[in-house]
Write a structure and sequence with these properties.
Shape: globular
Number of helices: 14
Helix content: over 70%
Strand content: under 5%
Structural class: mainly alpha
Order of helices and strands: HHHHHHHHHHHHHH
Radius of gyration: 23 Å
Largest sheet: none
Low-confidence stretches: 366-381
Distance between the termini: 36 Å
Length: about 375
């Protein structure tokens, strides 16, 4: 199977997943009530919501600019790269637009766009995107832990939803069967480790060396880049600013739909809802379609008592509004920089091919028989 075929199948699978999750999220919802809630929303909040949304991405572009300017120059006597904040912002918005058509290709598209505009190495620019993802992943991890403590009062509800059903199912299995299942799992792991991981030509070994191990190395190198950056305060400040904007972007629609008063939804509640919704966005569906709706609706209805139609209205508005904004602004950014969708597609395809070749090359360098890869300077700075 060719790389192009695998990519097409992956994209088709992501759209199918989005459709299934969207169906599950809206199943049984009174669509007339959703339409009525959307009509009666207070749209005076649209302007501040749009401004804060664009501000969050301007901060993201600035953080990316800080990382890009830490890239090593092409030659020893060359000055550090000078990155335009405008081009960085254009590229960020273009990346968000592409994500709705091809999940997870937005990072490649924005990297390819900026690298082409500034004539930089794709691999070097992509390294800074990895660092960005590490920063956001750390905030998300901290946010999920904080959400757990904020939702501690709903622990009984969470237990009924997730823990008790597992206990009931496990309680129906005899203890001897559980011991046998555990022993069989350990035996299976040992067989896989002996038969596949030690064989250089096994698919499991190739998956490890070509995908998992390079990602782990990139994570460690990217984290080291952040710790060594001379502008750590700017990185931390911009990251906090981005997530503060995200919090306001999630809270303002509660005001629009008049949820904050009747359901007593505060900023800490919004933080928990946003963190759980972010897990939905991380699922590989186009732009979080379906996954965001499902998790957000379940969180609002089960944990905060919002009626199903109201929760669906919130999820549909938040996701649909952002999707419309990103597509429109992303397309305008392409026009403002004098490019076209055709040139963007061409650059993205070329960059994707380069990325796959680089991954294959790094896989051979990252094998257990060599340590050269670990001695390289991270490309993020």
């Amino acid at each position: 199977m060719t790389t192009r075929t695998r990519r097409i199948l992956a994209q088709l699978g992501s759209f199918a997943l989005a459709g299934v999750l969207l169906y599950l999220a809206l199943r049984g919802v009174d669509l007339d009530a959703v339409a009525n809630a959307l009509r009666e929303a207070d749209y005076r909040w649209i302007v501040p919501l749009g401004v804060i949304t664009l501000l969050s991405h301007l901060l993201r572009a600035w953080r990316w600019q800080v990382l890009l300017e830490a890239l090593p120059p092409k030659t020893a006597d060359a000055p550090p790269p000078s990155i335009s904040l405008k081009v960085a912002f254009y590229s960020v918005m273009i990346g968000y637009m592409v994500n709705y058509a091809a999940p997870r290709m937005g990072e490649v598209a924005r990297t390819a766009n900026l690298a082409a505009q500034h004539r930089l190495s794709f691999s070097g620019v992509f390294g800074t995107v990895v660092v960005e993802r590490i920063l956001d992943a750390l905030v998300l991890l901290i946010g999920l832990v904080s959400a757990f403590f904020l939702l501690i009062e709903q622990s009984a509800v969470l237990q009924d939803l997730f823990i008790n059903p597992i206990r009931e199912q496990l309680g129906r299995i005899p203890a001897l069967a559980l011991v046998g299942l555990l022993a069989g799992l350990i035996l299976l792991i040992l067989i896989l480790q002996r038969s596949f991981l030690r064989r250089e030509d096994s698919r499991l070994r190739q998956l490890w060396s070509r995908r998992v191990q390079p990602l782990w190395i990139s994570f460690k190198d990217g984290l080291a880049t952040v710790l060594r950056s001379p502008r750590r305060i700017a990185l931390v400040g911009s990251t906090l600013g981005i997530w503060l904007c995200y919090l306001l972007m999630a809270y303002i629609p509660f005001q629009m739909f008049n949820f904050a008063g009747p359901y007593d939804l505060s900023l800490p509640d919004t933080w928990s809802i946003m963190m759980l919704g972010a897990v939905g966005v991380a699922i590989p569906s186009p732009g979080g379609i379906g996954s965001f709706h499902y998790i957000t609706i379940q969180t609002l209805t089960v944990l905060f008592g919002v009626d199903h139609a109201g929760a669906a209205s919130y999820a549909v508005f938040v996701h649909g509004g952002q999707m419309l904004l990103y597509i429109v602004v992303g397309f305008v950014c392409i026009l403002l920089q004098g490019s076209s969708l055709g040139s963007l597609r061409k650059n993205t395809q070329a960059a994707s091919q380069e990325r796959e070749e680089a991954t294959a090359h790094d896989a051979s360098d990252a094998s257990p028989t060599t340590t050269q890869r670990h001695d390289r300077t991270p490309q993020g700075g």
